[in-house]
Amino acid sequence: MPPSRGVSTPPPRARALTKADTTTAECRDCMNRTTTDALQLRPTRKEAIVWDDQCILRYSDSNFIGSINTNRLYLSNVNNASDRDSFNLELGGLMRNLTSRAVSDPLLLYASGKTVYDNFVTIYGLLQCTRDLDDAECRNCLESLIADIPSCCNGHVMSELKF
Q1: Which of 51, 75, 136, 147 has the largest CB neighbor count within 10 A?
Q2: pLDDT tens digits, residue range 4-59?
Q3: CB 17 within 8 A of CB 31
Q4: Is the distance from CB of 16 to CB of 28 less than 8 angstroms?
Q5: What's the pTM?
Q6: pLDDT tens across 76-125, in order?
Q7: Domain ranges of the chain
Q8: What would the CATH number be for the domain defined by 73-162?
C-alpha cells in the first residue's frame, strides 16, 4: 500500500563492500550474486546482510551508515593448532599489526599480511573496514574482533570473522 499523502517513508540504505584485492569483474559478479541471493532468500525483508567470500551486501530501511554492525558470523574448520595458546598469540600479533596498517590508510582501511608460526605454518590475515567509518571507529571495531579470537576461533587453523 503506498504511503498516505504527506507521509514519507525513509529511503532504503545499502552498503556493498568487496575485498580490496578483488578485481572489478569479481566485484561486479559478487554484487550480482549477493543481490540475487538477497532477493530470492529474503524477498519481503526490509533488511538483510548477505556474506560472500569476496563481498558483503547489506541493506535496510533504517540508517546504519556510519555505525558498526554487531552481527557477527564466525566460520572455522575442525583443524586445530597443536598449541592453541601459542597460535592465538601469534595470530593476535599479526592482527594487531594489520589493524595499525589498515587504519593508517584512510582511503582503503585495508591491510593483509602473513606471519610464520611454529617454523613451518604460515598464518595469513586480511582486515578491512567500510569507508563510512573513520580510522578510530575502524580501529575500535577491529580490536573488538581481535579480542573475540580466543573465544570464537580458539586455535582453529582456518577461521573467518565477518560482520
Answers
A1: 51
A2: 566 666 677 778 888 888 899 999 999 999 889 888 877 777 877 888 888 888 88
A3: no
A4: no
A5: 0.75
A6: 666 788 888 888 888 889 999 999 999 998 888 889 999 988 878 888 88
A7: 13-60, 73-162
A8: 3.30.430.20
